[in-house]
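Blinded run. Sample ID left blank on purpose so nobody reads anything into the name before looking at the predicted structure. Input follows.
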Amino acid sequence: MMTSTAATIVANKVATIHYILSDDTGATIDSSRNSDPMPYLHGGGNIVPGLERKLEGASVGDRVKAVVTPADGYGEKSDVPPQPVPLSAFGGAPPEPGMPVTAQDEEGNHAQFWIVEVTDEAVMITADHPLAGVTLHFDVEVMSIRDATDAELEHGHAHPGDGHHHPE
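Blinded prediction complete.
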């Protein structure tokens, strides 16, 4: 008797989903519908906690609608105003609003920031995710579910395709 090893979404499964994310007004914020579906490692903290909880136990073909509060999404907005960083501190690609930036302090601790505004002299950054304070409305379709590979479990996220690293 054969049993499916990937019947439902539970911890250590890689689920591939199509999603449409919208705000309270119904405006689309993001969608995978015009590209490949998105794989994620369930239980790996790769998606917002409120959506991950709603997808627990879902099966291939299920449509899941989830309304995720800021506390279970990208957090509430802080009262900290954006801080300026000299434009000269950014090498490589020119910074653009909405881009994530990782900063490192003297002790080697990393922190995530987002670019809010770019002027001729400075880049204004904030610790608030661009969707902080936003209630998220997800419309998700489960496309596939499979066991995570050892490498995915070790790395804490899904790898494209079959989950294995392949040399280029």
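Unblinding after everyone has recorded impressions. The first helix runs from residue 49 to 55.
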